[in-house]
């Protein structure tokens, strides 16, 4: 029987993306969140007396690895080494081998897989072979080859584990590096595939072989909401695999949508938002949260929400509320995506400028030729010398969303809402 | 909404003016130039939209005729009721208060709602305009109004489209400007650039980390080598140093041992022997000197003692001489004061004699002493004086009062006489009862009223009779008319006309063809009959209407007649009642019934005369009674005053008698006044004081003389006892001084002799003690020499030197042995060291040491540098390892990127919205002719009698063009002034209509706008205005009577108001 911890996509020292603004206390917490999550992984190894730790790529966020990240990673592995726990590391597209690596010495018992071919390392306990770990690192960032097919089982009765950073089945949410199929993995003759790359945890196959994406250890933006962590795995001598997910995230992300349709007063709106914040906190398991609240739907409060400064005041009040909770909840943003309660279909028929305007928007929306004129209207901003560096020109989908918002804005300013 | 009343409290020439009630529809306010039309227009605008800032250029219309600035306008909103809008002077246009129909109060918000959110500019340019606005092309260029022309009917809310687009552009500008520095996006971009630079600098740190690591390893190696070399060099140096350290001790030890062996052996010597010997020798020398000095002093004192002589005789008289010394001052002052005191005594005696002379011959010293001059006695005198003065004053006052009362009584008696004469001259009334007179006057007045009522009733009765006669004749006339009207046109002419037509046809048939002629004739006949029938039926209709009118009028006349008859009966009854009342009053008053108003007035006058007579007589009687009372009172007062004066006289004479008694009791003359007596008492007191001075001075002179005599006697006695001659009185003082001096000398010599005796004894004792000490010291010295085995002092000292040298050499040898042992170690080690020392030289070892030291120093410097280098490298590595900045910078970068995306999105939405609105506006202007222009075209066409057919508003241009009858387009500047004004008037009517479609119609105020219209177009314009009154209330201001006539003609129901010099009147 062996036990190990399977983690991936640590992205140590990567910044939190998409935060509007943060207060100083939260900034400290966020800066150290990926490190804290890694520490939680190390602690798990020690607490459960795991035999080894598997890290399936993307230890660092960029090829130019942050020194702090490397030091922290080395220190973590050193702790394991001191406790007699081995570590196996395979690098991925975010930290390929050709990226700069400092002159740090890896502690004893650490094995970093090379990038030329799949290596197989025997894990022994008191001189008895217990498992074989096969693995390969990304030699460079962009690997289009199917690395999974290079894995071959050893002729040994002990459990065999594959460690790989790859995209199984062309997950569209992630870059398609080292693509492979579940069939490739199943055909390799291994008992457990410790994968990395996809940030949402996913057990692709429960047994024969067990194929697991543990997801990243810490969510880093609003789209990585919910619990994040690693897997504690036990493999019996009979190669029975038991997996257990253990959350390691230090800060949790949440994204909530609240409809204003049944809300008719400012007070009720605030109460609803506070309730939402409380719910987020309750589900976060005693860790601080960062959340984004989206107000949607048509309702009497739409007009109020459009008032300059109103949403900002609301945000301030909620932040105050969230700050006072223990652990705190930081409300990053209130996205107002409500719409005026105007019957657009009938207004489009009216013989006035509002009718003309709505017809115009419909024309832009439905006619690709006309839609192609829209980027010209935004050229001043997106082709500005500095903006070009930081902003992408809105794509089709974004343009439609902008158009919808512009339509809503025009209606807000032009017409009284239907009662 | 319409205006129901305008109430101006104070505004321009208006003060407390009410215009109203103003009917819905059209009202014309006519007034000459400067009657206040423009002021009224301004008042309406300002109550609705606020007073202008007084600092501005607009006329503030201050209240020239008083009243509180401002006022109120009552408006009526259909379905809602009356609102009272009141505005007063104040900041920001002045506070407005709107009283709602239910009595609640509101402010600007309610007012804005009432005005359909129209702005002040829209109201001025569209709803309340004068010829000025019509003539100013610019007034239509006002953005709001031009915007309104285009946006009216656009379906937008209250905000003009142009303003919306402007707002969006403004918001865009706040978010981002290509060359801006303040907009949010620009600020974020700037910060992002800074962060990017900082992060790129940080990425170099990692290379630095590796380089430092390599350097650190090199430094560690170098340090290890240096430390090894340092150890070896140090060993070399320490060996040489050990020998050199032992060198001196080893040499000195050898020297000490050699010297000890050469010195003679001495086993013991007294401790501190030399010092003790020297101390004893010093002591003996000192004692010898002291003995010599004491002997010399003893001899000197003995000689002095022998030389002192003491006068014992003087010492025996010392007590007497001392007494003389004490009294010497008394003697001297008595001797010197005696002449002056004697003179003082003489002067005092003269003053006593003079005072006695002043008091009178009968006064001597004895009598003075017997007279009582105490304060109590003086108070008695003052009491007498006060009593007498008070009694005199009382007497004077009482006499004055009596004289005054006598005069007053005389005057009162005279007045009484005058009043009596006046009463006798006043006629006495027949009736003296005032109540009866008042009652009669009231009855007379009532009689006169009855007479006047009787006369009025009679006149009314006669007038009614005349009107009855007139109405009856009118009734008859109407009845006649009615009868006449009943007669209509006969029917017979119809067949007659047909027959005649046929006959005419037959007669014409003879000339032409028969059938045609007959048919033509018949046709003519039928036509004539038809015409007649038509005339007849029209007339019948007219007659019927006329008849109906006459009947209605007749009925009215009959009703009036019936009314008059009723009133006549009423008159007759009232007349009878009045006559009855008159007869009753006349019999009671016993007068003839007055025939007319004059007779009645004469009766009233009689009553008034009687009353006046009674009033005068009563007044004269009251004056006589008052004068009598006054005379009696004054007489009583005169008598009382005389009694008081007599009493005062008696009291005064009693006081004088008492004073005379007192004078006699003290033995003074009877004619002395209290003041004189007081003065005498004072003089007596002073005289007595002088007498006491004389007596005191006499006693003092006797005392002084005695002092002088006694002193001289004492001096003479002492002198005789010393065997000297008795002194002259003048020398007594000098002699006494000499005695004192002798006594002092004798005393001084005696104390000198006693002191010397004592000192001689003391010196003798000291000398004996010193000799004793000298003997003891000699014995001690001999003992000391003996203990050291020496006979003489010199020998003693030599032996002491040898002893001390030996001791020092032994100590030195011991110390050096210890030192060598310390370096080498005990026993064999020490022997080895000594052997080693014996085999080398000092120079050789010094050279060895110095060489090793310089090598060591070199090595240590190198090691220190290497250690520093290692520390620096470690520190740099530590600092790199603990680098947290990057995380913070990246977090900030991400945060800013997120904000940038958010703001960029806002900008994009606004850019798209502005573009959409602009495009929609263009499409609207292009595709749909605004309703305003359509309505305006229609009005313009009618006003110009189709001279112009259409108004055109070209898309994207803020101007207007017109199409004339030939469909030719004309620019504004091609139109005459009148046509231009008519065009703008039409546009305004179009706007009013358009605004009215979208919101509550507002009242329209036009100030003399037809001035430049020709009569034909003016009439058409008036018709347009009348059409407007179907939906809007219109107030038309004009100074032209012809405009009024036009209105009267076109709409007889129009309400007219006259405005004249700040006053308003309804016509």
Quick structural overview:
The complex is a heterodimer of chains A (419) and B (1067). Chain A has 419 residues and is of the alpha/beta class. Chain A has helices at 24-31, 33-47, 67-82, 182-186, 266-282, 302-306, 310-324, 344-349, 353-366, 368-371, 374-377, 379-382, 387-390, 396-414, and strands at residues 2-7, 52-56, 86-90, 110-112, 119-125, 128-135, 160-165, 167-168, 179-180, 192-196, 202-205, 210-213, 229-235, 241-247, 252-259, 289-298, 329-339.
Radius of gyration of chain B: 79 Å
The oligomeric state of the chains shown is: heterodimer
Q: Estimate the helix proportion of chain B, in percent.
A: over 70%
Largest sheet of chain B: 6 strands, antiparallel
Overall 3D form of chain B = flat
Largest interface: A-B, 58 and 62 residues
Q: In percent terms, what proportion of residues of chain A is strand?
A: 15-25%
Physical arrangement of strands within the biggest beta sheet of chain A: 4-3-2-1-13-14
The portion of residues forming beta strands of chain B comes to 5-15%
Strand order of the largest sheet of chain B: 2-1-4-5-6-7
Kindly, what is the distance between the CA atoms of the first and last residues of chain B, rounded to a whole number of angstroms? 24 Å
């Amino acid at each position: 029987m062996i036990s190990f911890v399977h983690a991936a996509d640590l992205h140590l020292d990567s910044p939190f993306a998409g935060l509007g603004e943060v207060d100083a206390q939260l900034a400290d917490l966020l800066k150290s969140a990926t490190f804290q999550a890694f520490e939680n992984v190390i602690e798990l190894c020690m607490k459960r007396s795991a035999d080894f730790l598997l890290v399936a790529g993307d230890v660092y966020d960029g090829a130019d690895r942050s020194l702090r990240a490397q030091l922290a990673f080395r220190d973590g592995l050193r702790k394991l080494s001191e406790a007699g726990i081995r570590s196996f590391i395979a690098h991925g597209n975010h930290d390929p081998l050709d990226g700069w690596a400092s002159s740090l010495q890896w502690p004893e018992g650490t094995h970093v897989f090379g990038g030329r071919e799949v290596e197989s390392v025997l894990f022994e306990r008191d001189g008895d072979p217990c498992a074989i770990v096969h693995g390969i690192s990304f030699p460079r960032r962009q690997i289009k080859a199917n690395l999974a097919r290079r894995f071959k089982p050893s002729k040994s009765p002990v459990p065999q584990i594959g460690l790989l950073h790859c995209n199984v089945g062309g997950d569209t949410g992630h870059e398609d590096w080292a693509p492979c199929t579940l069939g490739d993995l199943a055909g390799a003759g291994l008992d457990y595939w410790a994968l990395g790359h996809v940030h949402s945890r996913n057990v692709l196959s429960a047994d024969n072989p067990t194929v697991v994406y543990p997801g990243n250890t810490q969510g880093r933006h609003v789209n990585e909401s919910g619990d994040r962590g690693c897997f504690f795995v036990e493999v019996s001598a009979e190669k029975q695999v038991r997996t257990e997910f253990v959350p390691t995230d230090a800060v949790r992300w949440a994204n909530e949508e609240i409809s204003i349709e049944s809300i008719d007063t400012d007070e009720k709106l605030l109460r609803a938002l506070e309730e939402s914040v409380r719910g987020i906190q309750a589900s976060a398991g005693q860790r601080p949260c960062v959340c984004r609240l989206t107000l949607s739907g048509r309702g009497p409060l739409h007009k109020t929400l459009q008032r300059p400064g109103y949403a900002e005041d609301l945000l301030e009040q909620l932040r105050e509320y969230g700050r006072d909770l223990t652990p705190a909840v930081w409300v990053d943003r209130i996205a107002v995506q409500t719409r005026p309660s105007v019957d657009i279909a009938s207004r489009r028929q009216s013989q006035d400028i509002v009718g003309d305007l709505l017809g115009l928007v419909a024309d832009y929306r439905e006619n690709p030729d006309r839609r192609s004129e829209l980027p010209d209207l935004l050229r001043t901003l997106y082709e500005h010398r500095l903006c070009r560096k930081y902003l992408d020109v809105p794509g089709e989908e974004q343009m439609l969303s902008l158009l919808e918002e512009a339509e809503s804005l025009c209606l807000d300013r032009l017409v009284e809402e239907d009662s | 909404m319409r205006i129901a009343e305008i109430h101006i409290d104070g505004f321009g020439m208006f003060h407390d003016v009410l215009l109203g009630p103003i009917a819905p529809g059209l009202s014309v306010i006519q007034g000459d130039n400067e009657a206040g039309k423009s002021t009224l227009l301004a008042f309406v605008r300002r109550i609705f939209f606020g007073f202008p800032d007084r600092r501005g250029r607009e006329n503030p219309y201050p209240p020239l005729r008083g009243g509180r600035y401002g006022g109120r306008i009552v408006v009526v909103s259909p379905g809602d009721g009356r609102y009272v809008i009141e505005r007063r002077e104040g900041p920001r246009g002045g506070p407005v208060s709107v009283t709602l129909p239910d009595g609640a109060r509101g402010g600007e918000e309610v007012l804005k709602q009432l005005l359909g959110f129209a702005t002040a500019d829209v109201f001025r340019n569209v709803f309340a305009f004068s010829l000025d606005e019509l003539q100013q092309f610019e007034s239509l260029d006002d953005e709001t109004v031009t915007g309104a022309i285009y946006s009216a009917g656009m379906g937008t809310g209250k905000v003009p489209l142009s303003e919306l687009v402007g707002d969006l552009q403004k918001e865009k500008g706040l978010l981002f400007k290509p060359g801006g520095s303040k907009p949010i996006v620009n600020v974020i971009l700037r910060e992002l650039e800074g962060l990017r630079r900082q992060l790129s600098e940080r990425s170099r740190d990692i290379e630095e980390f590796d380089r430092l690591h390599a350097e650190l390893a090199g430094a560690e190696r170098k340090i290890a080598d240096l430390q090894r070399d340092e150890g070896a060099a140090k060993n070399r140096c320490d060996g040489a140093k050990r020998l050199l350290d032992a060198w001196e001790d080893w040499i000195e030890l050898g020297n000490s041992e050699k010297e000890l062996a050469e010195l003679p052996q001495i086993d013991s010597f007294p401790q501190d022997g030399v010092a003790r010997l020297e101390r004893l020798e010093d002591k003996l020398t000192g004692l010898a000197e002291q003995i010599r000095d004491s002997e010399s002093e003893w001899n000197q004192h003995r000689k002095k003692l022998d030389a002192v002589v003491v006068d014992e005789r003087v010492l025996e008289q010392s007590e007497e001489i001392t007494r003389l010394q004490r009294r010497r001052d008394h003697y001297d002052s008595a001797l010197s004061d005696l002449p002056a005191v004697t003179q003082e005594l003489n002067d005092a005696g003269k003053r006593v004699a003079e005072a006695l002379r002043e008091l009178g011959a009968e006064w001597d010293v004895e009598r003075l002493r017997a007279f009582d001059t105490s304060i109590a006695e003086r108070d008695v005198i003052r009491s007498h004086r006060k009593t007498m003065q008070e009694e005199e004053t009382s007497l004077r006052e009482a006499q004055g009062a009596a004289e005054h009362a006598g005069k007053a009584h005389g005057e009162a008696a005279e007045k009484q006489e005058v009043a009596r004469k006046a009463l006798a001259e006043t006629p006495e009334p027949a009736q003296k009862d005032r109540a009866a007179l008042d009652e009669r006057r009231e009855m007379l007045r009532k009689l006169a009223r009855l007479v006047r009522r009787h006369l009025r009733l009679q006149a009314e009765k006669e007038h009614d009779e005349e009107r009855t006669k007139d109405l009856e004749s009118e009734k008859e006339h109407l009845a006649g008319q009615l009868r006449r009207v009943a007669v209509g046109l006969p029917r017979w002419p119809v067949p007659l006309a047909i027959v005649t037509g046929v006959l005419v046809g037959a007669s014409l048939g003879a000339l032409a063809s028969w059938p045609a002629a007959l048919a033509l004739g018949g046709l003519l006949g039928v036509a004539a009959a038809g015409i007649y029938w038509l005339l007849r039926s029209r007339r019948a209709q007219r007659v019927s209407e006329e008849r109906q009118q006459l009947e209605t009028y007749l009925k009215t006349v009959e009703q009036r007649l019936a009314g008059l008859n009723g009133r006549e009966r009423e008159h007759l009854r009232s007349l009878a009642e009045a006559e009855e009342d008159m007869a009753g009053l006349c019999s009671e008053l016993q007068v003839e019934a007055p025939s007319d108003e004059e007779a009645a007035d004469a009766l009233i006058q009689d009553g008034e005369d009687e009353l006046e007579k009674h009033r005068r007589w009563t007044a004269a009687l009251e004056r006589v009674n008052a004068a009598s009372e006054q005379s009696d009172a004054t007489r009583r007062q005169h008598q009382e005053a005389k009694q008081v004066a007599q009493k005062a006289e008696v009291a005064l004479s009693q006081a004088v008698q008492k004073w005379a008694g007192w004078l006699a009791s003290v033995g003074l003359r009877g004619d002395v006044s209290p003041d004189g007596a007081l003065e005498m008492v004072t003089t007596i007191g002073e005289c007595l004081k002088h007498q006491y001075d004389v007596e005191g001075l006499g006693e003092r002179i006797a005392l002084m003389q005695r002092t002088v005599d006694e002193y001289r006697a004492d001096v003479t006695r002492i002198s005789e006892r010393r065997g000297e001659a008795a002194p002259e009185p003048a020398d007594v003082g000098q002699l006494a001084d000499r005695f004192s001096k002798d006594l002092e000398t004798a005393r001084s010599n005696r104390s000198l002799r006693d002191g010397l005796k004592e000192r001689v004894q003391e010196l003798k004792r000291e000398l004996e003690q010193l000799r004793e000490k000298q003997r003891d010291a000699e014995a001690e010295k001999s003992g000391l020499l003996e203990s050291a085995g020496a006979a003489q002092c010199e020998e003693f000292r030599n032996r002491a030197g040898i002893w001390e040298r030996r001791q020092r050499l032994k100590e030195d040898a011991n110390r050096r042995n210890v030192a060598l042992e310390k370096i080498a170690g005990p026993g064999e080690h020490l022997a080895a060291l000594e052997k080693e020392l014996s085999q080398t030289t000092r120079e050789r070892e010094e050279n060895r040491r110095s060489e090793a030291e310089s090598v060591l120093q070199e090595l240590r410097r190198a090691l220190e540098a290497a250690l520093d280098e290692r520390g620096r490298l470690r520190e740099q590595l530590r600092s790199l390892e603990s680098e947290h900045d990057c995380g913070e910078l990246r977090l900030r970068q991400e945060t800013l990127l997120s904000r940038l995306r958010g703001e960029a999105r806002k900008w994009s939405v606004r850019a798209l919205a502005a573009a959409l609105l602009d495009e929609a506006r263009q499409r609207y202007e292009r595709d749909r002719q605004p309703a305003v222009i359509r309505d305006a075209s229609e009005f313009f066409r009618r006003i110009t009698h189709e001279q112009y057919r259409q108004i055109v508003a070209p898309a994207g241009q803020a101007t207007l063009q017109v199409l004339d009858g030939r469909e030719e387009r004309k620019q504004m500047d091609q139109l005459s002034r009148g046509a231009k004004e008519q065009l703008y008037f039409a546009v305004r009517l179009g706007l009013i209509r358009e605004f009215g479609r979208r919101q509550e119609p507002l009242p329209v105020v036009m100030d003399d706008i037809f001035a430049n219209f020709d009569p034909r177009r003016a009439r058409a314009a008036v018709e347009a205005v009348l059409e407007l009154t179907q939906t809007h209330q219109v107030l038309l201001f004009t100074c032209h009577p012809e405009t009024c006539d036009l209105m009267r003609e076109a709409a007889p129901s129009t309400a007219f108001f006259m405005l004249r010099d700040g006053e308003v009147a309804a016509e």
